[in-house]
Each structure stands twice: as structure tokens, then as C-alpha cells.
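User: For my dataset I need records formatted as: sequence, then C-alpha cells, nothing else. Please produce one.
Assistant:
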Amino acid sequence: MFTFLHAADIHIDSPLQKLERYEGAPVEEIRHAARRALENLVKLAIDEKVAFVLISGDLYDGDWKDYNTGLYFVSQMTKLRKADIPVYIITGNHDAANKITKNIRLPEGIHMFPAGKPGSFYLDDLDVAIHGQGFAAQAVKKDLSAGYPSPAAGCFNIGMLHTSVTGREGHEPYAPCTIEGLLSKGYDYWALGHVHKREILYEDPMIVFPGNIQGRNIRETGPKGCLLVTVDEKRGTTADFHSLDVIRWIHCEVDAAKAESGYDVVDLVCSNLEKILEQSGSLPFIARIEINGLTPVHVELSADPERWINEIRSTAIDSGGGRIWIEKVKFATKLPIKKEPAELTDGPVGEILSFLDEVRSNPEMLKTFGEPLNELMKKLPRELKDGSDPIFPGDSKWLQEILDEVQPLLLHRLMSKEETK
């Protein structure tokens, strides 16, 4: 019996992706998060006395800005060499052979697979054969696994591959392959990389994405880490997840249906964040807050969103003790309509409803209404232009969603007693 670590997508020195623009953002913590997570991986490998470590691509986020990136990696690998733990690495699309222009000789026991053709390493004392091939260029469109060698007789055979398999949302379709194709190789374990979400594609033999070791943006939420794989006497495998991340990204949805004021909403957010704090232990986290629900507070929130966003940021600072940072606040509330639409079919209100229905169902009319927004977009604050929640004035679906949000607010104002006096 022996154990090994399977990790991927470490992305050492990954850029901040515009996160530094937010006031109070933990810039240094985020900038060095991937390094700290790698240090956790090294410590776990030593503590567990694993036989070896696999890194299935994208060790680096791209070409080094200077040699410090390589020197840092060598410093961590030296710790594993001193513990007699070899490491096996393939390159991926981010650190493909033709993208890395600088190079430092790695310590003894740290092995890189070739990028031009498949290669194999043999651990004779464990009867283990590890097969793999790195990316020679970023955009690999062919199935690399098809050229991998046949399994070594009498060995526990591992295949390392950086791949999208049959395709995964948010990831380029590099080195495509099929589960059936991987199974046909006859290997005992497939150590995949490229997809940042942990996923077991097949149980026996195991075909696994471990996910990345540190979330880098709000699309990479939840615990991140690696797999500790145990191989028993019958060559059966079990894989246990171990978190390595040092700062975590989360979505926090808050139902404002029962809120009666903006401060009620702030208190609801605070309560939700405190629950997350209790569950996360000592780990700090970055949260995107989404306020939703049918609520009369929709008018108050919509009238001054900047104020309420910063009220929420303020309460997070106060209650989090430096462990909570709000990446973004998104208001997705709607105003409840007190009267049934059937009661609004007559008179001016009915005409407005009919007009909105006509616009909603006519792409050309929607396009006409969207055109003036192109100029207005230039004057919007940064937060509304954020790429993770984009504005599409020329997109019919986006405009329809905006009409759905505006209609209850418009009806509320048209039918309020104050405005009819």
C-alpha cells in the first residue's frame, strides 16, 4: 500500500484580475495566495509521507516576469527532495513549453514530462509507471492521450493529462478526449488537470479532476485543494480531498422578502456572513452578496444602490474582524405587484402594460430602446461595468430582463396614492 498526492492548476503568481481596484481589498493576501496554497501542499505531502506528488499542468500562470517565480518553486521542491518525495509534472495551456522563456534547473527528483511526445517514469520500488505528455503550445486541439503507451505489465499505471475531456464550461477545449478513450488505455488511475472544479469522472479506474488548489475569482467558489490517493494491496484506489486554499471565494444569497427597510437588509446580510464565519474556522473569505426576493424595499435599494452597497461593506468590515471582504453586491430584488394584472387592463395603466408586453416580444423595438444606453454606459461607475456582471444594450434577452425589473417599480409609482393626489 502507498499514497500519493494529485494536484493541478496551481497557477503560481496568478494576476489579481482587477481585484485591486476595490477599496480595502486584501491585495497582498490574494497576490500571494497561490504560493501559500502550494506551501500547504508541500507540508501535506511531508506530513502524510506520500510516495510521490503529481502536478497535472498549469503549475505556472504564464511566462515568468522574472526569475523569482522559478526560484520560489525550487525552494518548495527542495523541501520535498529532502523528504525523498519525487514530483512528476506536465505542462498545460498556461505554462506550455513555448510560453515559458525563462528556465531554472530543477532539484533532483523533480521530473518534467516531455512536451513533444508522451513519456514514462518508473518507480521500481513501488511497481508504479507514470505516463504523461505536456503541452508544447497553448492551443492543443488533438487528443494527446491517444498516443500514450500501453500499460506497463505488473505495474500500477497512472496517466497524467491536461485536458477538457469532452468539454467543460468556462474552460477552453484543449486536448479533447473521451472517458471511453481513457478507459481503453487500461491504466489504473487518470490524474487530470485543466478544469478548476473538483470532479470524479469515473470510479473504477478513477478518472479525476482535483480542481485548482486556490480559487482565483468569484467563479471559483468553495474549498480548493488536492487529492490524497491511497492504493491498497489489490491496487484499489480511494481519493480523499484535502483543502489547501488560504482565502476562499463564496456566493451569499440573501432573501429580502421580509425586510421593511434598507437597514433590515443590511442586518440580514450581516447575519448570513456571521454564519459563514462560524463554518469557515479561521479561513478568511471573499464574498459576492446577492440580494433577492419580492420586497417593498426594492424601491429604497434601487433609489440609492451605492449607499446600500457601502452600508453592506461597512457591516462586513465591522463584523468580520478583517476576515471578510465583499467583492461585489448585486441587487436582484423585485417589487411585489399588489393587484392582479387582470385588474389593470383598463385605462392608462393597462395601455402601458400592453405597450411593455409589445416591446418585450419585439426584438427590433427592444434594440431601438437599447441603442441610447451605449452612450450612457460611458458614464456608469466602475462597479456597474464589472465584467463578471456585464451590460448588453444590444442583447434582447438582457433588455427583456431589465423590463421585467422595471415594470413592478413603474406600476408601484403609477398607482401609489401619493403620486395620484
